[in-house]
What we know:
The chain is α/β, with parallel strands linked by helices. It has helices at residues 22-33, 70-80, 87-107, 146-160, 226-233, 261-264, 278-281, 291-303, 324-330, 332-342, 406-427, 441-452, 459-473, 480-497, 511-535, 563-566; strands at 8-18, 38-42, 58-59, 121-129, 134-140, 164-167, 169-176, 182-189, 194-205, 238-239, 244-251, 268-270, 315-318, 351-360, 364-365, 371-375, 380-388, 393-394, 457-458, 477-478, 500-501, 544-545, 568-573, 578-583. The strands form seven sheets. Strands 1, 2, 6, 7, 8, 9, 16 and 17 form an eight-stranded mixed sheet that branches. The protein binds flavin-adenine dinucleotide. Flavin-adenine dinucleotide binds at residues 18-24, 41-44, 46, 49-51, 53-58, 146-147, 169-171, 206-209, 218-219, 222-223, 226, 257, 259, 359, 390-392, 404-408, 411.
Amino acid sequence: MSYSKANITKRKFDVVIVGAGGSGLRAALELSRAGLSVASLSKVFPTRSHTVAAQGGVSASLGNMSEDNWHYHFYDTIKGSDWLGDQDAIEFMCREAPNVVIELEHFGMPFDRNPDGTIYQRPFGGHTANYGEKPVQRACAAADRTGHAMLHTLYQQNVASKTNFFVEWMALDLIRNTQGDVVGVTALELETGDLYELHAKAVLLATGGAGRIFAASTNAFINTGDGLGMAARAGIPLQDMEFWQFHPTGVAGAGVLLTEGCRGEGAILLNSEGERFMERYAPTLKDLAPRDFVSRSMDQEIKEGRGCGPNKDYILMKLDHLGADTIRKRLPSVEEIGHNFANVDITKEPTPVVPTIHYQMGGIPTNINGQVVTWDGQQNRVVNGLYAVGECSCVSVHGANRLGTNSLLDLLVFGKSAGKHIVQFVNGFGDHAAVPADGSDRTLARLNQLDESKEGTYAQDIAGDIRAAMQQHAGVFRTQKGMDEGTVKINAIRERVGSVTLKDKSKVWNTARMEALEVDNLIEVAQATMTSAAARKECRGAHTVYDYERPADDAECPLGRNDKEWMKHTLWDSASNSLSYKPVNLKPLTVESVPPKVRTF
Length: 601
Ligand SMILES: Cc1cc2nc3c(=O)[nH]c(=O)nc-3n(C[C@H](O)[C@H](O)[C@H](O)COP(=O)(O)OP(=O)(O)OC[C@H]3O[C@@H](n4cnc5c(N)ncnc54)[C@H](O)[C@@H]3O)c2cc1C
C-alpha cells in the first residue's frame, strides 16, 4: 500500500519534541511538569540517544576544588569560540551553569563526590582560572559516564512527570501554515511504517548532531542531522555550518572517543620521539589547550613525520603514570574502550589516537529562549511555534570552537529556558491553529518517490559518497582548492539524492526506508558545511585553511583570523542556494564585552 493523504493518522498535542537526548528531555520535563501534553519522539529508546555516550563532564564554575567563578568561564568560552560566539548567550549560559547543575544533582544525578560531599570536578581543555593563567577544575563528572548518568536521571524524571514517549518514531518534515508558523510535524512509526501528522502549538527540534556526514566520527549512527534537514527543507537557513570540531583523541582506526577527561586527569600526548609536543604549541595549558588547537598540533606533528606506528600516522596518549587505581576509579570506560577498540591495556601502555570528527558548532539559529530565528538583514525574526535546542541548534555559545563539557551544559541551560518559554507561549495560545490541507505533501512526495523507484542508487552508497567527500575536503586542515572541489562533488551527489531507490518496500520496521530518508538530511548538512566553508576566507577556530594562515614570523600579515571582514555568522539557505551573513553579538547582557585578541594558550 502506498502512502496517501487518506492513510495519514492525525493527532494533537500542546507540544511535539523531536528528540529525547539530554536537551529534549530537559525541555520536556519543564513542559510536563507545567501540565502540558507533550509528545517526545525518538528514533531510538530515549536512553540510547547520543548524550548517553558523553564521558568527561558538564561544566559549571562551582569552585568545589579550585577557585572559580562564572566570569572566568565566560571569558574562556568566548576565547574558546575564537570570538564567533554571541556574548549575550555565553553570559546567560555561564551564569546559569551552577544553578542547572545543582538542580540536576537534586533530580538524582549520581555525580562523583569529594571527601566533603561536594561534586567532584576535573580540569578540561581551555577551562582556566584567572583569565587563562592556569587550568581550573570545572568539569562536574560521574566517572567517565557523565552523559549516561545525566540521560538516565532526566529520563526517570520525565517518566515521573508523565511525558508521552513515542519510541522508535522518526519525524520527517515540519508543517508550516501560510503565515510561516510551524503547526506540527509529519512522522513515521517505525514498527508499523504508518504515517502520522502530529499537530502542535509548538514544535521543539532536539535532534542532536550530524557527525555521520563524515566517514570517521565519534558520533552514534543515528546522528544524521534530521532536525537540520527538516529546518532546511522548511526554508530556514542554517548558521555557521563550516565549523566542525575534531576531538583530538579518537581511537586510531576505530573512531571511538577517549574522553578529554583522560588529559584532565593527567594523560599526555607523545610523538614518535617520545616528546610531549604540546609544551611547544601551548606552553601554559599544554595538553589541555582547546580542541581545535590540540587537533591541529597533532596533525602538524604527523605531517612533519613525527607520527607514531609503522605508517607514522597516529599520536600516542599515555595514561599509565596515573596508576591503575585512579584509572579504574575515574576512567573505567576508557579502560574498557582501550581493551575493546585498541587492544591496549591503558594501565600499562599508551593508546594510538587521532583527531576525529566529534561535534558541530553550527546549526539551526535560535535566541536564548530557544526560539528559532531568521535574519531579515537588520534583526532576528522569530519563527512562530518553532524552537530548537542542543547540538542541532546554534544559539551561538560555541562559536568557531566549543570547549569540552560546554555541550552538556548547553543542553541543560537552553533545554530549560526553551521549556519555560514554550510554557508561556502555549498557555497564551488558545486552540490549535488550522493545519493546511497540503501540510504532508512534501513528506508524501519523499515517501512515494522511494516506493515508486525501480532503479537508481542505494541510500548506503550515496551516504558513503557523502562521507568520503566530507572526510577528504573538510578536514582539520583545509585548502581553498580542496573545499572548492568538495563543493562541486557534494553538489553533484545532491543531484543523485532525488533518485535513491528502495528495494525492500515492506512497511514493518523497514530500516532501509529509514536510512533512505536520512540521506535527505545528510545531504542538507553536507552541502551547508561545504558551501559555508568554501566561502569563509580566513582561519577561525576549527576552520583552518592553509591558504589563509598567518606566517608565524609576521604578526602584521592580514591573513589568519580576519576580524575586519569575517567576524560574522554564516547563514546558508538551501531553498535559494545562497549564503548571507549576520553580525556576531559582542554585547553581553550585564557585563563588559571581551574584546577580540590573539588566541594563545
Ligand atoms: C562520544 C561523545 C562524548 C561526548 N562527551 C561529552 C562530554 O563529556 N561533555 C559534553 O559537554 N559534551 C560531550 N559530547 C557532546 C554531547 O554529548 C552532545 O553534543 C549532546 O549530548 C547532544 O545532545 P542532544 O540532546 O542535542 O542530542 P542527542 O543526545 O544526540 O539526542 C538526539 C535525539 O534526537 C532523536 N532524533 C534524531 N532524529 C530524529 C528524528 N528524525 N525523529 C525522531 N527523533 C529523532 C534521537 O533519537 C535522540 O533521541 C560528547 C559527544 C560524543 C559523541
